[in-house]
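Running this now, will post back.
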Amino acid sequence: MAYILVVEDDIELGQVLLRQLREKGHDVELVGDAEAAIARTNRYIYDLILTDLKLPGMDGIELLKRIKALNTTTIVIVMTGYASVDTAVIAMKTGAQDFIQKPFGFDDLIRKIDDALAIRRLKNEVDYLRHRQTDIIYRTSDIIGVSKELKHVLNMVTKVAGSDSTVLITGETGVGKGLIAGAIHHNSPRSENNFVQVNCAALPQNLLESELFGHEKGAFTGAVKVRIGRFEQANMGTIFLDEIGDMDLSLQAKVLRVLEDREFERLGGNRTIKVNVRVIAATNKDIVSLVKDGSFREDLYYRINVFNIHIPPIRVRKDDIGPLVHYFIKKYSIEFNKPVSDISPVALNIMMRYDWPGNVREIRNCIERAVLLAESDTITPAELSIVNANQVDDDIDQESSLSSLELKEKEMILDALEKSDWIQKDAAAMLGISKRVIHYKIKKYGITHPRWIKNR
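Update: finished.
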């Protein structure tokens, strides 16, 4: 969909163009002369203007000059029944994107409009690609984890992806809110268009406004040219407002307007831009408390919280630690060209016992360092670096006090437990020992697992 202004003094032709362009899904307005077109472009920024060259009063070439002086990003296609090479050259030099001679077939015009809009989208895409995040998996089937909590989150993603509803994702820092937002977009009907991410906590609020809405030339010191904002880049796609709880109240009001009216003005500008954007927001804060203390607008909260997805922290879904660890081992062994392919059962058990306040991000950093330090194909406890983890320090101290025979025994028990999905009686059968003996050994070596009720 594009926002199009048709400038045509032949009312019958203008009405035909208006109707047919709307049938193609565009938002279209019709005016009959250049003065009315200038009045509209003083108020709104259009994606494309389709204008006749021969108009009453101001002609199409002069109108073209005025349009380009107002906004260099607007595409202009000129129509004329008085075509000549000279006329076409003048129009193109003045800033027209394309030229079509009357009478023309509607299919030919649509092809020219589609081509022009594709070029505009390509320019936005190039600017977007300079800032996009890479190395992110967005297919829900590839998101790492096996816990029932994560499966519930992915089920919610599947349900909401096909709609256009605004989504609020909540959860602690590092749980993967951006990954889930990306999964929603890339499994939605908007997946062929841009997924634009903005971290609302990473920029000062005055710069964040320019980042979101763009700015006009001269809007502030250093604004030497027009800049397209993230909402414009995300047109027909999705914008992800990460850490929206850190946004200033004044900026919240402008975001609310985009959600309600689908329009805004660039910083330093007074002309309205219309967009069709899906908004996904995320926060690691208690946003209900922010609403109560007046630091977050209640109306904006209700507008973004149409569909809520809460991502639990790793400490309550420890079944996901093992799969994540092995995924990151594979990733960083390839990245660092090191033959690391596994983690010892003792080291994995240490990781299972830690609460991971930094969540998935902390696990990733821990494994990245461990792969770098690893001196064999298997990560050991000595290569783990876990900050502020007294219970893990105790485990490592215990490892150093065990004899080599005891260490081997503990490794065998942990290996059997892993292979038997942490069911103790099955692990005992695998090792050829009784349940009473394996219970004793588990207690002796301090082996725990989050599914075991006594360890909760």
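The chain has four domains: 3-129, 140-312, 314-391, 402-456. More later if anyone needs it.
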